[in-house]
Amino acid sequence: MLRKCEGHSKTLMVVQATTGEVFGCYATEVWENRVGEPKFYGNGESFLYKVRGGGGGRRREGGGGEEVTVHRWTGDNTLFQLLDHSLSRIALGGGGEEGNFGLCIDDDFARGTTGPCETYGNREGLCEGGVFEIIGVEVYGFVT
């Protein structure tokens, strides 16, 4: 992923879980392994989102289509974006209970976790149960 994202200062990540749920994040800095201890970076333009009713192409009953819920920066902390090479994960959003991240994906992109976090004020994870297995991840890069 890092090679594919190289040079893209902003990225939109779309995750589809095996449950059909779709969610992701918008990151405002290049995904890169920072020197020294893992530290959060980025800024308040980043956000988390969840697509409701999308379910991998399924539409809600009544033909209502998809609804996107966006969780923007609350201003409570600056725990935006993290690439932790030592633990082989990427994450967005921190300050949650029991060390939850708003979104955390393991390096093999097969599974991840999501939970409430202070950074984006989401009161629940982006998917049911907070732990998910991944069908696919797409990352769209933007150059500014």
From TrEMBL:
It is found in: Mitochondrion. It comes from the Eukaryota. InterPro entries: TLDc_dom. GO terms for cellular component: mitochondrion. Keywords: Mitochondrion. Pfam families: TLD (PF07534). Residues 1-143 form the TLDc domain. PANTHER family: MUSTARD, ISOFORM V, NUCLEOLAR PROTEIN 7/ESTROGEN RECEPTOR COACTIVATOR-RELATED. Belongs to the OXR1 family. This is Oxidation resistance protein 1.
